[in-house]
Design brief:
- This protein is mainly beta and about 350 residues long.
- The chain has a domain at about 1-15 and about 20-140: Neuraminidase (6 Propeller).
- Helix content is about 5%, strand content about 40%.
- The chain is built from two helices and 28 strands.
- The chain has helices at about 120-125, 225-230; strands at about 1-5, 10, 25-30, 35-40, 45-50, 55-60, 70-75, 85-90, 95-100, 115, 125-130, 135, 140-145, 155, 165, 170, 180-185, 190, 195-200, 215, 240-245, 250-255, 270, 285-290, 295-305, 320-325, 330-335, 340-345.
- The strands form eight sheets. Strands 4-5-6-7-11 form a five-stranded mixed β-sheet. Strands 8-9-10-12-18 form a five-stranded mixed β-sheet. A four-stranded antiparallel β-sheet has the order 13-14-17-21, with no helix packed on it.
- A hairpin with a 4-residue loop joins strand 15 and strand 16 (about 170).
- The longest helix is centred in the middle third of the chain and has 6 residues, at about 120-125.
- The protein is globular and about 60 Å long.
- It starts with a strand and ends with a strand.
- It comes from Stigmatella erecta.
- This is Glucose/arabinose dehydrogenase, beta-propeller fold.
- Pfam families: TrAA12 (PF22807).
- InterPro entries: 6-blade_b-propeller_TolB-like (IPR011042), Beta-prop_PDH (IPR054539), Quinoprot_gluc/sorb_DH_b-prop (IPR011041).
Length: about 350
């Protein structure tokens, strides 16, 4: 795992087999200035991201000793704004790097993109961020990225704050814009930000239903970005699923384990970290996204506090990272409680 405030990568293990990584069962693998979010293994290397770089170290599975031979893979990532830098590899060895917006609403989408680097670029290393292909454009903050069993890349997006549009009810930020589950089926497409937003719940008589695209109020009178422009799928790819506003989805994982019932396999789990921009707050949970015929049809609660409010004193977690363990358990990290929770299934 990456410990952002400490700027280090730590391996957690369970030597005594009690199901818990005790404080003595830890090893610092690497330290680097600014390490903040992304981490992955690929091709004999451990990769991690900072706000400005993607780094790697030669790595052998099971290593608990400090790594040496740090290399720069991608440099010159833009700083400031949203600081997460999600990294993921596809089956062809191409590296994807996601960068979020500089502000709540930027003037354009130049920064808010996923860039893709070829296997040759990755192998060579020290490649400038701007030399990567713009794989997906118009993504305000696509923090969670994951491939499904069909090799398709999916992402979860955090929408803008403080949304107010007079003709749609004025201050509509409590339930809008929707957080998004996006499918990146074709390289080079545009997904709306900052010119458009996705509806989650608008006032009766005004709204047209979740996922409907609307022009952002800051651009709707610029002569180009109208509601009609935003709804033209030749211009904007709408999300595959709309999720509640300000739940702040930070990760997604497709379940491929053998512990949960068979009907859960190939469904997704999404972590809702929760946001400051809604009262009462919502999120603070993990949801299951049910798929049918390869597409999402709904989300439902999976890991949450059994109360009307997941921000209650008895619920200390704000979910962040997700993973599937070797025994089919679902791992959930919480940056509020400082814990990693393992969720299993007993028949």
């Amino acid at each position: 795992m990456v410990e952002r405030t400490a700027g280090r990568i730590t391996a957690l293990y369970d030597s005594n087999g009690d199901g818990v990584s005790d404080s003595s069962e830890r090893a610092t693998l690497a330290e680097a200035s600014g390490l903040n979010h992304g981490i992955t293994l690929h091709g004999g290397y451990l990769y991690a991201s900072s706000a400005t770089r993607v780094l790697r170290w030669p790595f052998t599975t099971g290593t608990r000793a400090a790594l040496s031979g740090q290399q720069e893979v991608v440099t010159g990532i833009p700083t400031g704004g949203h600081t997460t830098r999600t990294i993921i590899f596809d089956a062809e060895g191409r590296l994807y790097v996601s960068v979020g917006s500089a502000a709540n609403v930027d003037n354009n989408s130049t920064r808010s993109r996923i860039r893709r680097f070829t296997a040759a670029q990755v192998q060579a290393g020290n490649v400038a961020f701007t030399d990567g292909e713009v794989f997906a454009d118009g993504l305000r903050n696509e923090v969670g990225l994951r491939f499904d069993s069909q090799g398709r890349l999916w992402g979860v997006e955090n929408g803008r704050d403080n949304l107010n549009r007079a003709d749609l009810g004025g201050d509509i930020h409590i339930d809008n814009p929707a957080e998004e589950l996006n499918l990146f089926a074709e390289a080079g497409r545009f997904y709306g930000y900052p010119y458009c937003f996705s509806e989650f719940l608008l006032p009766s008589g005004v709204g047209m239903g979740p996922k409907t695209q609307w022009a952002d109020p800051g651009f709707m009178n610029d002569g180009t970005h109208s509601d009609a422009w935003c709804r033209d799928v030749n211009n904007v790819v709408p999300p595959m699923l709309a999720m509640p506003a300000h739940v702040a989805p930070l990760d997604i994982v497709f379940y491929d384990g053998a512990s949960f019932p068979p009907e859960v396999v190939d469904d997704a789990f999404v972590s809702f970290h929760g946001s400051w921009n809604r009262q009462p707050a919502q999120g603070y949970e993990v949801v299951r996204v049910v798929f049918e015929n390869g597409l999402p049809v709904r989300y439902e609660p999976f890991f949450e506090f059994d109360s009307a409010s997941d921000t209650a004193a008895g619920w200390p977690h704000r979910p962040v990272g997700l993973g599937v363990g070797p025994n089919g358990e679902l791992f959930v990290s919480s940056d509020a409680s400082g814990q990693i929770i393992a969720i299993g299934y007993q028949r």
